[in-house]
Amino acid sequence: MTTIGSTRAVVATHEQLIAAFFQASAGKWHSERRYYTLPQGKTKEVCSRLEIELLDRGCEELHHLEALHQLDADALVCGTRVSWCSIDAETGRLQSEDSTLFGALGNQLYRDRGFAIDQPVAAQFHFINPQTLCLRTEYKGSSFEEELKLIGDRYRTRQTIVARAGEQKLIGQYLETRL
């Protein structure tokens, strides 16, 4: 019985932390990022405008996400819709313009698509502290480890490491400033 009670407390803590993190991240952001391709060391710089919208349990977007992942209705406790428009910093050319949905349940973060595929994926998450979210996603032989850190209410940093077959292939580092 103690195990069940403590498990519920941990789940509640995960869900409370992710809800607070989503709330603190909601809004419009300017993102400057640099990608390092390994092992060659080739770099690419990209600038993006992000909009992060908080999604409440039971909303249409989370119902769609629940259906994609074959979850019960109203299972996801909260979520976000992240929209972006990204431009190559060197050429000024449009890189991508799109959006994605995230929804949380326990220590799982469900998404309507992956970084590199248009299929639903799920990530495990944990917090180093209430301002630092860590994610791990795996699919098609690749793993994606990401750390997002809130710095006050005006800044976020992100770092993403992409690996295939156990070898690191790409590092992305981001500085995001609230608009």
UniProtKB/TrEMBL annotation:
<keyword id="KW-0456">Lyase</keyword>
<dbReference type="InterPro" id="IPR018536">
    <property type="entry name" value="CpcS/CpeS"/>
</dbReference>
<comment type="similarity">
    <text>Belongs to the CpcS/CpeS biliprotein lyase family.</text>
</comment>
<dbReference type="InterPro" id="IPR012674">
    <property type="entry name" value="Calycin"/>
</dbReference>
<dbReference type="GO" id="GO:0017006">
    <property type="term" value="P:protein-tetrapyrrole linkage"/>
</dbReference>
<protein>
    <recommendedName>
        <fullName>Chromophore lyase CpcS/CpeS</fullName>
        <ecNumber>4.-.-.-</ecNumber>
    </recommendedName>
</protein>
<dbReference type="GO" id="GO:0016829">
    <property type="term" value="F:lyase activity"/>
</dbReference>
<dbReference type="Pfam" id="PF09367">
    <property type="entry name" value="CpeS"/>
</dbReference>
<comment type="function">
    <text>Covalently attaches a chromophore to Cys residue(s) of phycobiliproteins.</text>
</comment>
